[in-house]
């Protein structure tokens, strides 16, 4: 027996090797091969697209179709998706549920884009597709026969690219549930407690949009927004040593922090914006032999992190009072 697979071309079977085919457990409970043939017929299915591990079932199902005088369907057996060790993808390779990827902050359009490229490639090697473009471009005739490796780094790259193309307003809406669920110590002016329960809710979305915009170039998954921006919602905790730039002594760090406090204090509240902050702090930093001696303690005092966006951008969002408060905390430390 032969049939034409839309991906693998002609496939032949020696039906004499099949032996007797079990169709049901009893008169009431059909087994898989009989059930799917009846189901496909009743639902008027024209194409069966499934993994290559079902090829062995196809010959049995075609024989049942012939016995019942049903028309033969068109079959396309896709290559299996493999883990990094080239074995069939399974739970031991990581998250396998679509809902797990959603919870981690992967966008639906990014996941669809990534899955489409597993075992298929367009003629121009394009990697980013809208859903409409995929519908237009995708063809079973271009699907490869060999298995494709599920590369999580590639998925991260695609997801990050989608995030960077998104409007700040839309991205903020998507990040909001992660922040509301994970961040407990919100700034009072952006938090209100629901009268029904104690779940925090953001009320100042403009403030949040500034934070999301700052991290948008670095986000890979939506869930990362909490870890990357937690210092905007509560004063950071960090080791004193992190304030040190190169071989600075405690006395030198203290001197830099005092200078930073003095500079911030002199900027009027109404003029405490990115342009003025950068101009004034950079001018002072240029007077030193190493700008890092002034700017590094500022970054750590504001964020408590070794890696973060620039200190001027952070200061602009936090506002004058919070900046002074955090520099004072660093001085006490």
Question: What do these coordinates show?
Answer:
This protein has 333 residues and is mainly alpha-helical. The protein is 47% helix and 8% strand. The chain has 14 helices and 8 strands. The chain has helices at 32-42, 55-67, 98-104, 108-116, 131-137, 152-165, 168-182, 205-215, 224-229, 250-266, 274-285, 292-303, 311-318, 320-332, and strands at residues 2-5, 9-12, 47-51, 74-78, 81-82, 148-149, 191-193, 200-202. The strands form 4 sheets. A two-stranded antiparallel sheet has the order 1-2. A two-stranded parallel sheet has the order 3-4. The chain has a two-stranded parallel sheet with strand order 5-6. Helix 4 packs across helix 6, helix 10 (250-266) packs across helix 12 (292-303) and helix 10 (250-266) packs antiparallel against helix 14 (320-332). It is elongated.
């Amino acid at each position: 027996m032969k049939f034409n697979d839309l991906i693998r071309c002609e496939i032949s079977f020696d039906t004499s090797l099949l032996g007797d085919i079990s169709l049901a457990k009893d008169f009431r409970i059909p087994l898989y091969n009989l059930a799917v043939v009846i189901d496909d017929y009743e639902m008027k299915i024209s194409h069966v697209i499934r993994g290559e591990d079902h090829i062995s079932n196809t010959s049995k199902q075609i024989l049942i179709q012939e016995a019942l005088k049903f028309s033969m369907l068109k079959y396309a057996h896709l290559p299996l998706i493999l883990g990094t060790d080239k074995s069939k993808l399974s739970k031991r390779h990581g998250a396998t549920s679509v809902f797990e990827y959603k919870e981690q902050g992967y966008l639906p359009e990014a996941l669809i884009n990534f899955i489409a490229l597993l075992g298929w490639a367009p003629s121009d090697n394009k990697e980013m597709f809208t859903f409409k473009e995929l519908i237009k471009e995708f063809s079973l005739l271009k699907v490869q026969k060999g298995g494709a490796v599920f590369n999580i780094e590639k998925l991260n790259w695609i997801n990050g690219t989608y995030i960077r193309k998104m409007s700040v307003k839309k991205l903020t809406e998507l990040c909001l549930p992660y922040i509301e669920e994970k961040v407990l110590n919100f700034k009072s002016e952006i938090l209100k407690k629901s009268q029904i329960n104690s779940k925090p809710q953001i009320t100042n979305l403009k403030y949040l949009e500034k934070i999301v915009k700052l991290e948008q170039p670095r986000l890979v998954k939506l869930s990362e927004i909490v870890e990357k921006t937690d210092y905007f919602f509560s004063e950071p905790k960090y080791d004193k040593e992190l304030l040190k730039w190169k071989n600075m002594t405690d006395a030198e760090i203290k001197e830099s922090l005092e200078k930073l406090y003095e500079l911030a204090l002199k900027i009027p509240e109404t003029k405490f914006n990115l342009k003025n902050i950068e101009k004034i702090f950079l001018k002072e930093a240029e007077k030193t032999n190493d700008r890092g001696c002034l700017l590094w303690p500022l970054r750590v005092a504001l964020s408590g992190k070794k890696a973060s966006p620039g200190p001027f951008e952070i200061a602009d969002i936090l506002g004058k009072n919070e900046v002074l408060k955090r520099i004072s905390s660093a001085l006490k430390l």
